[in-house]
Amino acid sequence: MKIQITGIGSYIPSLKIHNTDFDKHVFLNEDGSAFAYPNDVVISKFKGITGIEKRRYAEDHLNSSDLAYFASQKAIENAKIDPETIDYIIYAHNFGDVNHGTIQADTLPSLATRVKNKLQIKNPKCVAYDILFGCPGWIEGVLQANAFITSGMAKRCLVIGAETLSRVVDAHDRDSMIYADGAGAAIIEGSDSETGMLSYESGTFAIDEANYLFFGKSYNQDLNPNTRYIKMYGRKIYEFALSKVPAAMKSCLDKSGIEINQVKKILIHQANEKMDEAIIHRFYKLYGQTPPKGIMPMCINELGNSSVATVPTLYDLLTKGQIENHEIHKGDVIMFASVGAGMNVNAFVYRY
Fold first, then answer.
1. Are 256 and 344 found together in one domain?
2. Which residues form the Beta-ketoacyl-[acyl-carrier-protein] synthase III N-terminal domain (predicted)?
3. What is the CATH classification number for the domain harbouring 105?
């Protein structure tokens, strides 16, 4: 038995934040000193590296679990199922619900339970829980659904990735421009057909790499040092991703029995355009090849990095023909891959 994605949905917040909206921000170095160059230079360099022109923020009255609920509704409608037949709700996030204007994470009750409540699922045997796995959380949730379904513990799972990163960023850190909000959700079911998941790979690197992403104080020395924000060592993450992700993808593909030339699309976590391009080039280099044109759909330039939501959102847009110059057909082989806090890496090969 394989698992199939039988329904997919996403929620893209309506608030568009352009790069130019950061013109008046006071960006500082880690020691609190001012940058040596003006914001237009900061923004130009940022765009050149990340590819991000815009990002989406959640409306003030909405929270991560609200975005997740909207995406889940769409996935359920897309799958044409009764939500009462869902055995597991697996919700990947990193920071819980964070009310607008605050920075405190709220995870009581779990966000998965909140989504179950919003969906009004009465069945007590529909088990709802959260997972914390950094940006690769949605893919890891799919791998957990695979374990439940192929072992006979479940027939149908709802796997969600949703986040409001805009509410945990330090406005004085230029890395804050990377982050965005959004949600993606999928219905996962068992199938005996030719299509579905063919192989997977997952790993955690936690010796030297554990704290590449962390919670730290604002770069503004006048702010409360006990208030924490998402921080990262960008160069270390870049080097880690190029070292570990292509190897994990190769291991995953080799286990599937699929040839590299049969892969039609690679959906990779939308973290940084230049980094993703470098990962793909290094992956193909492992096979002595260069990536074919159009292998990697991207949405980061318009949507930014919404962490766990990027991969399911990208898949939703691709399957619905909403990514320019990209399409997918029945029987096509897709590879999903991600990297993020932990440091975690995962991938799976899927026949559409």
1. yes
2. 129-203
3. 3.40.47.10
The answer to whether residue 287 is domain-embedded is yes
The two structure tokens encoding residue 207: 């010796």
pLDDT tens for each residue of 124-148: 999 999 999 999 999 999 999 999 9
Q: Where are the beta strands (DSSP E) in the chain?
A: 2-11, 15-18, 54-57, 88-92, 127-131, 156-164, 181-191, 196-204, 213-217, 228-232, 263-268, 333-340, 344-351
Distance CA 22, CA 72 (A): 32
Helix, strand and coil percent figures for the chain, each rounded to 5:
35, 25, 40
Q: What one-character-per-residue DSSP string does 193-226 give?
A: SS-EEEEEEEEE--SSSTTSEEEEE-S-TTS-TT
Q: What is the pLDDT of residues 186-198, one digit of tens each?
A: 999 998 888 999 9
163 and 95 assigned to the same domain: yes
Measured CA to CA, the distance from residue 109 to residue 107 in angstroms comes to 6
Count how many domains the chain has: 2
